[in-house]
Amino acid sequence: QVQLVESGGGLVQPGGSLRLSCAASGSRFSRAVMDWYRQAPGNQRDLVARITSGGTTNYADSVKGRFTISRDNTKNTVYLQMNSLEPEDTAVYYCRYSDYGIYWGQGTQVTVSS
Predict the structure, then answer these.
(1) If we measure between CA atoms, which residue out of 12, 16, 19, 76 comes closest to residue 49?
(2) pLDDT digits (tens), the chain, 114 positions
């Protein structure tokens, strides 16, 4: 069983920045594919960014050039640096861990509003 604890969400003005963190339990973190998803009210949960065990990254078109996913295997933590935030980025953000199983964090709210 893997536990994921997210942090870093909050309220930010348009154009601002936030950094989300997701800390994982267990000893296999370095082997896992780590994703950030988001879900706005009334919408499905969509993939925002992915980082593989080898460090390859992928992004949704809507966040390319603004968001950066990274990982620190020494801390069992994945990050999502979000810059130039827009009201459309408002959502609950979830991290997902994929290895021999799939595990989700509890979610952290990001609200972009003036």
Answers:
(1) 19
(2) 899 999 999 999 999 999 999 999 999 999 999 999 999 999 999 999 999 999 999 999 999 999 999 999 999 999 999 999 999 999 999 999 999 899 999 999 999 999
